[in-house]
Amino acid sequence: MTITDAPKIVTGRLAAHDDAHTIARYEATDGYKGLRAALQRAPQSITDEVKAASLLGRGGAGFPAGVKWGFCPPGVFPRYLVVNGDESEPGTYKDRILMESDPHQLIEGILIACYAIGCSQAFLYCRGEMALAHERLGEALNEAYAAGYVGKNILGTDYSIDIVLHWGAGAYIVGEETALIESLEGNRGMPRLKPPFFPAAKGVYLQPTVVNNVETLANLPWLMQHGAEAFHALGAENSRGTRMFAVSGHVKKPGVYEVEFGVTTFRDLLYAPIYSGGIRGDRALKAFIPGGASAPLFYEEHLDLPLEAGVVGKAGSMLGSGAIVVMDETTDMVKATRNLVRFFARESCGKCTPCREGTTWLERILDRIIDGHGRPEDIDLLLDVCDNISPGLLWPPKQTTICPLGQSATPSIVGTIKRFPEEYERYVNAPFSTTVAINGAAYLSPPVAAATGGSAE
Predict the structure, then answer these.
(1) Residue 447, pLDDT score
(2) C-alpha torsion sign, points 212, 359, 383, 376
(3) For 57-105, how does the pLDDT look when each residue is reduced to its tens digit (9 = 90+)?
(4) What is the pLDDT of residue 4?
(5) How does DSSP classify residue 445?
(6) How confident is the model at residue 454 (pLDDT cuts 50, 70, 90)?
(7) What does R_g of the chain's alpha carbons equal in angstroms?
(8) CATH T-level assignment (fold) for domain 12-232
(9) Angle at CA 372, nearest 5°, toward 371 and 378?
(10) pTM above 0.70?
């Protein structure tokens, strides 16, 4: 097994202290030292440090954070930082843990990023259902203002910064950065066309805006204290540092685990006693979602892949939001697929026809099949609708909509029809044939000869 002794960059304080959310504990454990160090440097040098560290965004797309900061057009002010705390994909709850349990770490990361980018105002957007996170963030901001970390002339410098805490209304689509900006401005959360509305050029109030994920910013205090070289020494070639993964489903110890990025494997994370501890009841693994509900399913043969974005991408899926959902041999894959599709159908904002109509019809067809009224030809119809939403059934998918929500509803259908056709046949009481071509590495992955239960040695 590949269990490393990498430092816990963003969760070390959580495991050691029950009061990690307080400013007293935060300051007693090196809190705000990274900010003090950053304020002694030129802003551009901080951006260069983040680039040198190869810090990738932890929100799903995995875009280099330092490069993203550099997209703001020079000399155009005001500019804003928006923190995406609208974590809402099924199985994803790592950012919520950070906001609830170590809010000052996030605030310090925001301050460092704002100083580097040249922002005097940041917006911290927290998902509506996360009541405890919102309460903890509010308390922490009050403490930070009172201590002089936020506000006018922070820590005796000539730099001033305000952070606005914004409570969202609980829409999944607002996790998309332009829809988040729309919601932040008081409009209905619907994605904007890119171009022209790239946030770095035309974001909040049509001013240059950087949108960063919670975990991404939480890395900055450690990075400022220990330097790019120490961060870059952790992880794999294209996935530096550590990363948090939220494991749920049929495992013995569901939870959030911070592991060395690109080195730890899925087998390590799911079966190691210090992590998830194996499948519940020691049953066999049937399938798992490697990176959030929108990712194509992985299976037994994928367990030894490292948690590295490039490797997982070549295998036909993605690490995405860091949510790993495990399904054991007792899982009804048709019902599991219906649950995933129902989520995307309900969360569609309705702006784009393929998403609005396609996801709704996918849910209706699956409901009909599960309710016992399905026909053999419904299976091919499912794939045909998927092909209209995501042409070619490729991965990564082709875009027919402004944002990827519509395409996110198709991978579970395509994967389960290809991998578990007998389960669909039981529902329609007959064999079926399909005419729609299926592509994508994960969809075409050959099953192993026999299930082994994935026991680790």
Answers:
(1) 65
(2) positive
(3) 998 778 999 999 999 999 999 999 999 999 999 999 999 999 999 999 9
(4) 81
(5) P
(6) very low
(7) 22
(8) Rossmann fold (3.40.50)
(9) 95
(10) yes
Cis peptide before 306 (omega within 30 of 0): no
395 class by beta-carbon count within 10 Å (0-12 exposed, 13-18 middle, 19+ buried): buried
Tokens of 196: 């022209």
Establish whether the linkage from the previous residue to 195 is cis, with ω within 30° of 0: yes
Distance in angstroms (rounded) separating the CA atoms of residues 263 and 240: 10
Name 247's bridge partners: 255, 324
59 touches 213 (CB < 8 A): yes
> CA torsion 68→73→75→81, rounded to 10°?
-40
Same fold, 235-328 and 333-428: no
Joined together, the tokens standing for residue 431 give 């064999």
Per the CB < 8 A criterion, the answer to whether 140 and 85 are in contact is no
Q: Phi/psi class of residue 345: alpha, beta or left (left: φ > 0; alpha: ψ in -120 to 50)?
A: alpha
**Token match 């790239």: residue?**
198
Residue that the structure tokens 């530096």 belong to: 240
Q: How many CB atoms lie within 10 A of CB 79?
A: 20
CATH class label, 333-428? mainly alpha
> Which of helix, strand or coil describes residue 87?
coil
How many CA atoms, within 13 angstroms, populate the side-chain half-sphere of residue 367? 9
Pairing of strands 80-85, 162-167: unpaired
Question: What is d(CA 57, CA 173) in angstroms, rounded to the nearest whole number?
Answer: 18
pLDDT in tens, 146-190: 999 999 999 999 999 999 999 998 899 999 999 999 999 999 999
DSSP 11: T
State the DSSP string of 220-235.
HHHHHHHHHHHHHTSE
Q: How far apart are CA 350 and CA 353, in angstroms?
A: 7
> From the centroid of its chain, how far is CA 243?
11
Query: CA 40 to CA 360: how far, in whole Å?
Result: 54
Q: How far apart are CA 62 and CA 259, in angstroms?
A: 16
Domain ranges of the chain: 12-232, 235-328, 333-428
Among 3.90.360.10, 3.40.50.300, 3.10.20.600, 2.60.40.1120, what is the CATH number of 235-328?
3.10.20.600
User: How big is the CA angle at 177 (ends 176 and 179), to the nearest 5 degrees?
Assistant: 70
Q: Give the tokens for residue 144.
A: 């930070």
Q: Regarding beta strands 285-289 and 242-249, do their DSSP bridges make them parallel or antiparallel, or are they unpaired?
A: unpaired
